[in-house]
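Run galactosylceramidase through structure prediction, thanks.
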Amino acid sequence: MNTLLGMLAILLTHWADADPIVFDDSTGYGRQFDGIGGLSGGGATSKLLVNYPEKQRSEILDFLFKPNFGASLQILKVEIGGDIQSTDGTEASHMHYPWDENYERGYEWWLMKEAKKRNPDIKLYGLPWGFPGWVGEGSGSPYHNVAQTADYVVRWINGASKVHNLTIDYVGIWNETPYNITYIKTLRKVLNERGYKHTQIIASDNKWKIAEDMLKDKQLKDVVYAVGCHYPGTQSSPEARKLGKTLWSSEDYCQKNDETGGACWARVLNRNYVHGYMTSTIAWDLIASYYTHLPGWDMGLMTAKEPWNGHYVVSPPIWASAHTSQFTEIGWSYLQHGRGVGTLPKGGTYVGLVNPDRNQLTVVMETMTFEHSKCVWDQKAPFQVAPQNVTLSLQGKWKDIGKMNVWFTQMGFDGKPSIFFEKKPPLKLYQEPYYLSQQIGSFEVLHEDENGYVRQMVTQMTIPWCKKADGVQKAYNVFGDITWSDISVQFDFRVPTENGTSGVFVAARATQGGCVSGSTAGIFFFALPDQFVLSTDLRRQHVLKTGSLSYTPGSWHSIALLVKGNTARLSFDQTTVYSGTVPASPAAGWAALGTDSFGLADFDNLQINSVAMET
Ligand SMILES: *[C@@H]1O[C@H](CO)[C@@H](O)[C@H](O)[C@H]1NC(C)=O
Ligand SMILES: *[C@@H]1O[C@H](CO)[C@@H](O)[C@H](O)[C@H]1NC(C)=O
Ligand SMILES: *[C@@H]1O[C@H](CO)[C@@H](O)[C@H](O)[C@H]1NC(C)=O
Ligand SMILES: *[C@@H]1O[C@H](CO)[C@@H](O)[C@H](O)[C@H]1NC(C)=O
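Sure, done. The structure for galactosylceramidase is below.
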């Protein structure tokens, strides 16, 4: 199982002071993950990027868009230029006048194409901040003539397709400005009529208010694909949640891109889902490519504002994005709250995400203090954190995962260094062998490459509590049902070359467990490196038969024992080594396996059949 763990700023050990954090998909999944994005525009925020020397410009674009490289952005949102000041400048309209149409102006077309070149799966999203005066016939409102405004916006989408071969996946209404329901419905209608059924409407790029209207107006609810809220502060409204529609933080972050900004962004990416069920988060802005002292300077995921010398800075938010975006794709699912999504006992959050084939799990954890992760919308300190150890408990489909890959980021403060997106040694997860009931010795699940197997771990006599088990230097595991009589048991085993046991056994009709395990009777087939021993006890004091067999430590072999009535058949590496009679008593007992002495031994591919099923 290919498993990835994207992880932020948290220490993990085997040791915990609280209940384990459970990741379990057995009761289903949470919402679909819709991607992490950056917003170019709102306005003119990528202005200087286009002027960079080709080499550095290409490197910067790789840090933003190239999959598994830097921020690996999954959505690019751009301003639909309207010839208006939209924060840090104006961006050109594709229609300065009603009779004008031009789809080459500005840099957003170029940027979208560069993003698509690097990641053909990136989603594109356009939103107007304002409109040329002729839209609305000089009334000052784009809702004065909703058909005209819809025509203007859909022409931009059409230009993207016809001139640039770009598919616009999402379109918004009017940035952070009151919406008009008639306009939203008209926009949907015009999109459909012109062949853009696949372009989905995100509304209203303001606060959650539209959710209230969507609850009252079924048609409005149907035409809006996702409710997009700006700066939700990780919370969605009760009305928005009641809708059952997709919820997005369609603009967020707005923070200088230092360590605090990176920490804010990391916190927001997790918490927008943990607290607000939002499945996409988009940063304003994509890149700080505008001059210092313009409003909100350095508030991009990274900074590139010196095109004359090619200097740029890959800032902390790039790596905060990477923890999620490098280990997910749009279309993955979150786990359910309480079963892989939630808050850590002493502050911080975690989210679990699963791919559509349900065979990859990504976990992103963050814990950081309020002071060091302040976001613009934070009014007061709403949380406390303290150092903590956490234990991950993988259940459901994940129960067999024995190893997770770890990436770590620490935003450095108070003299501590910053560490960005560092690959740590994999996290080994202790696993208890299923079904095997350990009576003597200690068995656990280990992994080599993709294969899991069970190893007996005890290498020397223990200090016992059970006096009667004293002195039995054999590891012993029972499984199945004590009434089993005619069965076959087989498995593969390997004696490690270092600290290995003197042999392994397979048994049927094993009679005892607990403190009297040492005196257990049954049919025992011991495979030692130079012989086999068939005995009617664990201690190997009542030997029925010995014979030749040979193997050397370090390689895998298989043994099988079949008992039926008063006969037994012993096989080693698929060859029968003995077939003959055994005593009628004991007539029934557990199946068992173990080692001939304390020492390491590996077990895999255990199979048990009732003999009636044997041919
Ligand atoms: C929305 O636009 C329509 C069409 O121009 C107009 O009739 C209506 O009054 C507007 N609604 C609001 C709430 O402004
Ligand atoms: C347009 O883009 C699609 C991928 O989105 C590609 O398959 C197709 O070849 C492109 N067409 C042209 C004319 O470049
Ligand atoms: C975490 O566990 C380690 C031992 O594994 C211990 O030294 C450390 O004090 C623990 N930290 C906390 C905060 O409990
Ligand atoms: C074998 O035991 C020795 C100590 O006796 C230990 O140093 C070594 O790591 C062990 N090897 C394995 C594979 O467990």
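The chain has nine helices and 33 strands.
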